[in-house]
Design goal:
By secondary structure, the chain is α/β, with parallel strands linked by helices. The chain is built from 14 helices and ten strands. α1 runs parallel beside α3 (33-48), α3 (33-48) packs across α10 (251-264) and α4 runs parallel beside α5.
Length: 335
């Protein structure tokens, strides 16, 4: 038995991965990466079988953000040419929900730029979510920035199932990425989400000049936060942002990162998110041997691949899309 299968067996037996073991995953020889992914799949299969969760984003508000996040085309310091607009109306959010429902996508993500939502913006989301629940029964995730406790409670009461607020990077690397809010600001919002009763979703962006130890720290921080869903983004550097031209990643390393997060967070939803097309490239299918969730369609200001290509990939792998009924059952288990 190779070392990765031994490590997978330990994880399945309830033993946590040590820091040294975690670093060894990221430093796995490239020639052994298929052995590593096979071991990660044993953990993924024990918890999720061959099911894949599908997610779709609605970019409900774009640009106009006062924050200075170095990776983001919507930030105050970005010169990237993007469409900027205020919160879209309820009908537009509902149209997106109908499209998600028609494509058998279980989770509909309403995302808005900005430091945090105004009470009026929360009102708009609340109104739309109530109708989405009545009409389509979709799992709804909101991503609106830093929350106030009363806003979190209103979203929960309206039917928002999950709230996303990424830690993005490690606490040690955070100040290199943004200074307009702190790492603790982000952690506090995730904790507030948990207190409200919504399912916490928090993830990372890989490829922002962090060290391998930073990546391990991110995975362990999300374990400590007990995030139910962990989106893993791979930096798609956008011209006009401070990280313009940064290209640190290659497909093999991205697979190692996905495996790491599965080993450290064995029972959690690991979602391959933004940048998978440009960073994993032809190795995208292999990523699902560690991850069990993907975004379908476009992201916020960058394009994804066609939904039909994603579905073909899943069929070719022999994986199955989680049905809406199965999604509802899993959601009931979280709440």
């Amino acid at each position: 038995m190779n070392q990765w299968m031994e490590l997978a067996g330990q994880v399945l037996g309830g033993i946590e991965v040590s820091n040294e073991e975690a670093l060894s995953i990221l430093e796995c020889p490239d020639d052994d990466v298929l052995l590593l992914m096979h071991a990660a799949f044993q953990i993924r299969k024990r918890v999720y079988g061959k099911k894949v969760k599908l997610n779709m984003i609605m970019n409900a508000k774009s640009g106009l953000c006062p924050e200075n996040c170095g990776y983001c085309s919507q930030s105050s310091i970005s010169t990237a040419p993007i469409n900027s607009y205020r919160m879209v109306n309820k009908d537009t959010i509902l149209e997106g929900a109908k499209r998600a429902h028609d494509l058998n996508i279980g989770t509909y993500c309403i995302v808005a730029s900005g430091r945090g939502p105004s009470n009026r913006e929360v009102d708009q989301v609340v109104e739309a979510v109530k109708e989405i629940k009545d009409s389509y029964g979709l799992k709804v995730c909101a991503c609106l920035g830093l929350l106030k406790p009363e806003q979190a409670q209103r979203l929960k009461e309206a039917g928002v199932d999950r709230y996303n607020h990424n830690i993005n990077t490690s606490s040690g690397n955070h100040a290199n990425i943004t200074t307009s809010h702190t790492y603790d600001d982000r952690v506090n919002t995730v904790e507030m989400v948990k207190e409200s009763g919504m399912s916490p979703c928090s993830g990372v962006i890989i490829g922002m000049k962090e060290t391998k130890q930073d990546v391990v720290d991110m995975a362990n921080s999300l374990k400590a936060l007990d995030a139910d869903s962990i989106p893993i983004n791979f930096l798609h550097a956008i011209d006009g942002t401070p990280l313009e031209g940064v290209k640190e990643l290659n497909p093999i390393y991205c697979l190692k990162v996905l495996a790491l997060f599965r080993f450290i967070n064995p029972t959690k939803e690991i979602r391959i998110s933004g940048g998978r097309e440009v960073n994993l490239r032809s190795l995208q299918p292999l990523g699902l041997y560690a991850a069990n969730s993907i975004f379908v369609g476009d992201y916020l200001t960058t394009a994804g691949q066609a939904e039909s290509e994603d579905h073909k990939m899943l069929v070719d792998l022999g994986f199955e899309v989680e049905s809406v009924e199965e999604m509802k059952a899993s959601l009931a288990g979280e709440n």
